[in-house]
Amino acid sequence: MSATSRTDSVTPEHGAPAGVPHLDVDPFSTEFFEEPHPIHEALREAGPVVWLDKWGVYGVARYAEVHAVLNDPMTFCSSRGVGLSDFAKEKAWRPQSIILEADPPAHTRTRAVLNQILSATAMKPLRSHFTALAEAKADELLARGGFDAITDLAEAYPLSVFPDALGLKQEGRENLLPYASLVFNAFGPPNQLRQEAIERSAPHQAYVAEQCQRENLAPGGFGACIHARADAGDITHEEAPLLVRSLLSAGLDTTVYGIGAAVYCLARFPDQLAKLRSDPTLARNAFEEAIRFESPVQTFFRTTTREVELSGHRIGEGEKVLMFLGAANRDPRRWERADSYDITRRTTGHVGFGSGIHMCVGQLVARLEGEVMLAAIARKVGKIEITGPVKRRYNNTLRGLESLPITISPA
Amino acid sequence: MPSITFIHPDGRQQRIDASHGESAMQAATRQDVSGILAECGGSAMCATCHVYVDDDWLARLPAMGDDEDALLDGAAAERQANSRLSCQIKLGADLDGLVLRLPDRQT
After folding, report:
1. Distance between CA atoms of A251 and B88, rounded to whole angstroms?
2. pTM: predicted TM-score of the whole model, two decimal places
3. How far apart are CA A281 and CA A271, in angstroms?
4. pLDDT band, very low/low/confident/very high, at A16 (cuts 50, 70, 90)
5. How far apart (Å, rounded) are the C-alpha atoms in residues B86 and B28?
6. How far is residue A280 CA from its own chain's centroid?
7. B38-64 per-position pLDDT tens digit
8. Closest CB to A346 among B29, B43, B73
9. A125 CB near a chain B CB, below 8 Å?
10. Nearest-5° angle of CA A234, CA A235, CA A238?
11. CB contact under 8 A, B39 and A115
């Protein structure tokens, strides 16, 4: 199959390339969202490289290949979009990201700016404030006893710290989660989820575009720091709002899903909650292991810039390759007892935040939020019980819950 | 095969063998040296594989890049003149016998 014969990257009728195992599963379907793990296993066991009939793309689900693709950004590029849509053939639904959807050398410059603004040094002054708000949240929820761990905890806590750290105004913050949900749905194929998200998106897009402007960002926040870097000449004044947009797109919802994943794990695995309670310094790793175990960001695409051989399979130029991060994070070739949530596991190398040059630039903010929230739970909460139906939320890229009713009791 | 000795904060010495071309961080995490967290897995993003390089070895290491320099400022334990990130120390025969001290904390 020649890549150049293709006129539309989502035309499903072209067949599997010779020798590449093909599967008719749809990783953007309700069935998959409900229970991806058996399908992940099928994808991993079919071979190191597979072909997905439904969308006409290559897929990699084993750890080694996912890691290899992530760490070869010049062959597997991001500038043609990290969703199914190929920007060389289709117009992006919004102006292209100058960091996520960029390759070196363009990526190097913008990434350096965000690396510094979200650096370990920048996290130090945030820690005590983030910790105090996490403890206040845990106290408030303990007083209530029963609540929804998604809306009242996983969403409420990041919403109480991140928009302020960014320097956003109070008004309009209700647009933040719908905007992020749109961004992550839009990486998927043109299915109903994506279409509906884009159709409803005008007010959310308008809000975000407005907040990216310098005059709307409070001094001292991440947003103002980005604009200051334009003054310093590291980026242009036209680029600054687009980098602020990247934080608004990727900085909140992902953390919500991460904290939701961690609470869901602790609720299901009381032995791990007990371990965490006996040693609250495990909080950071308990969050990290939840990222590995649940992989809130499930998938990303890359596009080949040339013909390449990957684990014995030839992939032509201009092909989309779908990386199953969640499958890689439970690949038994890489992880012992991959399907166990173990807060003492050495999680180094998981790809839940990606790997290589595009690895999540906000990972230290996410880890800080996750750590201090779980540490507060470790010190104050004795027991977590699920008290009602657990509902899943459907998104083309993110995996998490819509509702998790729980009760907690004091330690 | 180059060997590295890690010295833990309590003085305990741990010697491990590394493969040519891997980083000191990779060798340490592969062989479960506690005290090397490497949260970012070697993408030069997190400063949690911080080490203090024994003086005899410091000058023999490759020069520090700007990224590493900036990251070390954010390391949890005090930065010293001999601070490096172990993910940026690639091992070859010339570094056989390398001695690295571990800081008391990484986060």
Report:
1. 28
2. 0.95
3. 16
4. confident
5. 9
6. 25
7. 999 999 899 999 999 998 899 999 899
8. B29
9. no
10. 160
11. no
